[in-house]
Write a structure and sequence with these properties.
The complex is a heterodimer of chains A (223) and B (595). By secondary structure, chain A is α+β, with helices and mostly antiparallel strands. Helices cover 35% and strands 27% of the residues of chain A. Chain B has a single domain (33-568), classed as Cytochrome C Oxidase, Chain A, CATH 1.20.210.10. In chain B, helix 3 runs antiparallel to helix 4 and helix 16 (411-441) runs antiparallel to helix 17 (447-473). Residues 1-19 of chain B have low confidence and may be disordered. The chains are: A alpha+beta (223), B mainly alpha (595). Chains A and B meet through helix 1, helix 2, strand 7 and strand 9 of A and helix 4, helix 12, helix 13, helix 14 and helix 15 of B.
């Protein structure tokens, strides 16, 4: 049992997990203030015979304080979040040296197209593998997402990456894996009765392993 | 209908006298135009649908806790849903779709708006009835019709929808991809009928509040419940038609072969999401604002203090409602919508934390230095504040777009929405149902049983929904039939079992509420005229109040929260219509109701 976000395996995990922790601390403080306040008032001001409530309609100073503090906090949080959001999802942020892989989603499988030995998608040496995503470690990967039928969502929890695949749209999303090993790619958007089993294995290889796998697949996969 | 020249109701006039003539059971309780009876009709119908939604939830939790194991009682369901007691994947998807649909459209929304906008608005503003009583009756019957149409989709070939309560296209637009035919059409038709019901109701509430306030009931003397219901009605009248339009387009895609949402023939998949959430986010506030309003009334009463920062509370309601129109894109951060739009929607979404915080701190301020009476409505109202706070704060995680990436469409969002809609709205409804029960039925609900129900619900509720945050952080996607398929989710399965067992207990303790509610109808203690020592106009009437409410329209001399006022003498409350020697009679400024 893991009581936190899944173990991190991409460069996005650092900022996202850090931001998660920051929000947890901010909201934690707010939560403690409110709940401790509630419990204190419930105990301290419970009705007793002969007591009368303090007659007041409020305080402008208090209103200003508890309007301004959340407002400033939220704007600051928005600015910090936006910095990382642009870094992760903005279309211009995909690194120019990224290795492009095509991911085509359909009910209920992932068709993953590799650029083959020439390293370019859309050429004759491309090959497609079902439900197996292989990527080299420490190398920016650009996933070119498309969908055959309905909306699916590309989700690898350890990479902190999620992006819907929408029919009629061509969406590019990138990531850089930091740890070799085996992971899982799941569908995060309800896509029909087989939604739950729309699963692919994800392998993060060392560059040598990846080159060897590519060579072997290209040999077996092309006509 | 709204001529000032009309005689004031209760001061003679043939039409009004007819109200007091003995009426047959059918006229009085079934085809009633009395806003209070219509409210009670809504109450029974939506409690039934709340039960339906709850039963669907229990099946969802069985499957998630014990995937592949035969469900007790599963043999009662047909083989298209359950084989050898095991829930089928297609039925599971239908369960989650219909649980959301029933809870949002046919349980929480009518419980808050159908019941309490109807019941409370005229009573609290001193009107004799709604502005348009017959349109009000039509609104109820259309809602019931819509509910029955939706319910009937369980009995048609291929069953109800399989695309979630959100009905994302093209899945919902293509029978060949969803496997649903008639069920999808019934969903669309039901939503169109329900939307009509909501729009008629909302127009009625808006008109009534604007035109039929008693003399002296100025805007800023209105109880916060009425403010919230009024603003909610404005949201309803603007939001529901958008959903109706979208549902008609979806129906055409399914039946007539149009392709509004199907890119194969030039449609736009994301168009549905924009339309749905342009309705859907204001809808979220339709589901929480009335709860906030009623809780404000109850907390002031329980604290024996004026509400802290009344004007801030009113402006916070308006602020939330306004911002509610600018945040729909936060449901679409992962949808492939231009990421720059994501930035915009993040800022507007984070800003909603501000009016929400104002509300929470003002409730705390109201309780500060009060003289707190913990009657059952107050317990549930305090439960609302503590749980809504968690639901509000957990929303900030998903509002921050980078953090939304791992959390979007996981159980974390399921936890969040249930902290708002169950911990928030439903606790507020338990408070409201108990609080205004004497006004509806002339009796008081059993107090010890009510307290037991509150504490057990509070405990099992948190045991059910809090761990969902954890499994959502762990990555468990929403709406998946069997989480144990994924290796990374397998270690979390014991927590899923824990959640399921807690959910069964949570469901079981609701039987206490049902027993209390039904038993008290007949055997509850007879309610005194003002059982909670409240200031609201409704408590100056007998319990239950007669058709037409007042013999004479009451005059209003002050705001609704003058608890513990020095002017009140030895009592700690000061009713809105009580004339003190220093008070001058107000000038009638609004129109008489019901004619």
């Amino acid at each position: 049992m893991h009581w936190w976000l899944p173990p991190a395996a991409s460069t996005f995990a650092g900022p996202i997990d850090g931001l998660f922790l920051a929000i947890l601390i901010i909201t934690g403080i707010a939560l403690v203030i409110v709940e401790v306040g509630l419990v204190t008032f419930v105990v301290r001001y419970r009705a007793r015979p002969g007591r009368k409530a303090f007659y007041t309609h409020g305080s402008t100073r208090a209103e200003v304080i508890w309007t301004a503090i959340p407002a400033v906090t939220m704007v600051a949080l928005g600015l910090v979040s936006n910095h990382y959001w642009v870094l992760i999802k903005d279309r211009k942020s995909v690194p120019p040296n990224a290795y492009h892989i095509g991911v085509h989603a359909k009910q209920f499988e992932w068709q993953i197209t590799y650029p083959g030995p020439d390293g370019k998608l859309g050429t004759s040496d491309d090959f497609t593998v079902r439900n197996q995503l292989h990527v080299p470690v420490n190398q920016p990967i650009a996933v070119e997402l498309s969908s055959e039928d309905v909306i699916h969502s590309f989700f690898v929890p350890q990479f902190r990456l999620k992006q819907d695949a929408v029919p009629g749209m061509h969406i590019i999303v990138w990531f850089q894996a930091t740890k070799t090993g085996e992971y899982e790619l799941g569908c995060a958007e309800l896509c029909g009765m087989g939604h739950y089993k729309m699963r692919s294995r994800v392998f993060v290889h060392t560059p040598e392993e990846f080159a060897a796998w590519m060579k072997q697949q290209a040999a077996g996969g092309t006509e | 209908m709204t001529s000032v020249a009309h005689a004031r109701p209760g001061e003679g006039g043939g039409a009004h006298d007819a109200h007091h003539a003995p009426m047959s059971f059918w006229r009085k309780y079934i085809f009633s135009t009395d806003h209070k009876i219509i409210g009670i009709q809504f109450l029974f119908v939506s409690l039934f649908f709340l039960l339906v939604g709850g039963l669907l939830a229990m099946q969802i939790r069985w499957q998630l806790g014990f995937p592949g194991k035969p469900m007790p009682g599963g043999g009662l369901l047909p083989e298209t849903m359950i084989v050898n007691g095991v829930i089928l994947p297609e039925y599971y998807v239908q369960l989650v779709s219909m649980h959301g649909t029933f809870m949002v459209f046919f349980a929480i929304m009518p419980l808050l708006v159908g019941v309490y906008a109807n019941f409370l608005i005229p009573l609290k503003i001193g009107a004799h009835d709604m502005a348009f009583p017959r349109i009000n009756m039509a609104s109820f019957w259309l809602a019931l019709l819509a509910g029955l149409i939706m319910f009937s989709s369980f009995f048609v070939p291929n069953g109800p929808i399989r695309s979630g309560w959100t009905n994302y296209a093209p899945l919902a637009a293509r029978p060949d991809l969803s496997g649903v035919t008639v069920g999808q059409m019934l969903w669309c038709v039901s939503i169109v009928v329900l939307g009509l019901s909501s729009v008629l109701g909302s127009l009625n509430y808006i008109t009534t509040v604007i035109n039929h306030r008693a003399p002296g009931m100025t805007w800023f003397r209105m109880p916060l419940s009425v403010w919230a219901l009024f603003i909610t009605a404005i949201l309803g009248v603007l939001a529901l038609p958008v959903l109706q339009g979208a549902a008609i387009m979806l129906l055409f895609d399914n039946v007539l072969g149009t392709h509004f949402f199907d890119p194969v023939a030039g449609g736009q998949a994301l168009l549905w999401q924009h339309l749905f959430w342009f309705f859907g986010h204001p809808e979220v506030y339709i589901l929480i604002l009335p709860a906030m309003g009623m809780v404000s009334d109850i907390i002031a009463n329980g604290s024996r203090k004026p509400i802290f920062g009344y004007h801030s509370m009113v402006f916070a309601i308006i602020g939330i409602a306004f911002l509610g129109w600018l945040v729909w894109g936060h449901h679409m951060f992962m949808s492939g919508m231009n990421p720059t739009l994501g930035s915009t929607f993040m800022v507007s979404t984070l800003l909603i934390a501000v009016p929400s915080a104002i509300k929470v701190f003002n409730w705390l301020g109201t309780m500060w230095r009060g003289n707190l009476r913990f009657h059952v409505p107050m317990l549930n109202a305090v439960g609302f504040v503590s749980m809504f706070t968690i639901g509000g704060l957990s929303g900030i995680f998903m509002a921050a777009t980078p953090v939304d990436i791992p959390l979007h469409d996981t159980q974390f969002i399921v936890a969040h929405i249930h902290y708002v809609l169950f911990g928030g709205s439903l606790f507020a409804l338990f408070a409201a149902m108990t609080y205004w029960y004497p006004k509806m039925f002339g009796r008081v609900m059993n107090e010890p049983l009510g307290k037991l129900h509150f504490w057990l619900t509070f405990i099992f509720y948190n045991m059910t929904f809090f761990p969902m945050h954890i499994i959502g952080m762990g990555g468990q996607m929403r709406r998946i039939y069997d989480p144990t398929i994924y290796d990374f989710l397998k270690p979390q399965q014991p927590l899923n079992v824990f959640i399921s067992l807690s959910a069964f207990a949570l469901f079981a303790v609701q039987i206490l509420f049902a027993i209390n509610f039904l038993w008290s109808l007949k055997f509850g203690k007879k309610a005194p005229r003002n059982p909670w020592d409240d200031n609201g106009l409704e408590w100056s009437l007998p319990n239950p109040a007669p058709h037409g409410n007042w013999e004479r329209t009451p005059n209003v001399y002050r705001g609704p929260y003058e608890f513990s006022s020095p002017e009140a003498g030895s009592a700690d409350f000061l009713p809105q219509n009580l004339k003190l020697p220093s008070d001058r009679d107000p000038v009638p400024a609004t129109l008489p109701a019901g004619h």
